[in-house]
Design goal:
single chain; 304 residues; alpha/beta; Helix Hairpins; 6-stranded parallel β-sheet; two-stranded antiparallel ribbon; 8 strands; globular
């Protein structure tokens, strides 16, 4: 199988910067594994690389869809497979970099996915329901999916019900033979340090125009409902712009709490995979990653 280096981790862990450094050093290209960076116009709120960074290393799966478009996990998987195979076929090292656990698992595990279109009528019915009712409904339709999903994630619960209601129970995440030989490297920090990094990054993005970014999306016709579904920064800033959160300081406080909770959920997802090698936050991330990749490559069979 072809080789793939995966660089994953929590928000504000330094994944993007490390991915660029490794790609430059190893002659590789980056494939994004971020469920929101696929959308054009979501820049500061998603931590998208800057134009200057984009000029140093080629990135794939960024800005490939309009925010109003439907872009499914199955579409992402197909596009990521194509990018990874193209990079490897050119003799370069593909690096899958991001923090969306489901996207990473879809590539690493080789999920067999069904591409069920959105059912707007069903979504309208499900949106008002409390989480407990959504979980109960999914348990009746697809017990396996209910046991696997993050039961605190409303959007994913509704999507799983949508898939199961289309007659595809147990089809949304069946496992097939993995397509790649993967080395998974994880990045995070002790909780206190990570929280400070999250707060610092949030305040910097607010200073650089994140509120204005969301206001611009609204002025261009992106609905508040669409922005709410994008979660975190887009959800809370939309509420702030509607006058529901009061001051900018209160926005920063509430959004910071939500991002910290999200990072905790990311870590819980990744910690389930014992194959992930977690880099030591108190060492040089770059040097340790290079050493791990070199050691891994020495274990691989010769290329025929």
């Amino acid at each position: 199988m072809k080789q793939l280096v995966v660089l994953l981790g929590t928000n504000a862990s330094g994944k993007s910067d490390l991915g660029i450094r490794l790609a430059q050093h190893l002659g590789g290209e980056v494939v994004s594994a971020d469920s929101r960076q696929v959308y054009r116009g979501l820049d500061l709120g998603t931590g998208k690389i800057t134009p200057a960074q984009a000029g140093t290393v080629k990135h794939h799966l960024i800005d490939v869809a309009d925010v109003s478009e439907y872009f499914s996990l199955a579409q992402y998987q197909r596009a990521a497979y194509g990018a990874i195979d193209s990079i490897g076929g050119a003799g370069k090292l593909p690096l899958l970099v991001g923090g969306t656990g489901l996207y990473i698992s879809a590539i690493v595990e080789g999920y067999e996915l069904v591409d069920v279109r959105p059912n707007e009528a069903l979504r309208a019915e499900l949106e008002p329901l409390p989480l407990a009712q959504l979980v109960g409904r999914l348990e009746k339709l697809d017990p396996e999916a209910a046991g696997r999903i993050d039961q605190g994630n409303r959007r994913r619960l509704i999507r799983a019900i949508e898939i199961a209601s289309a007659g595809c129970a147990n089809a949304s995440a069946r496992i097939s033979s993995p397509r790649y030989t993967c080395l998974q490297l994880g990045l995070t920090w002790p909780r206190e340090i990570l929280e400070k990094r999250i707060e610092k990054r949030l305040r910097e993005r607010l200073v650089h125009g994140m509120v204005e970014e969301v206001a611009g999306l609204r002025s261009r016709g992106v609905s508040d409902l669409q922005l709410d579904k994008l979660g975190l920064e887009y959800r809370y800033i939309t509420r702030y712009l509607r006058g529901e959160l009061g001051t900018l300081d209160n926005l920063c406080l509430q959004l910071g709490v939500a991002i910290r909770q999200f990072a905790k959920g990311q870590l819980t997802w990744f910690k389930r995979d014992s194959r992930i090698i977690w880099l030591d936050p108190f060492k040089d991330y770059f040097q340790e990653a290079c050493e791990r990749i070199r050691e891994w490559e020495e274990t691989l069979p010769p290329t025929p």
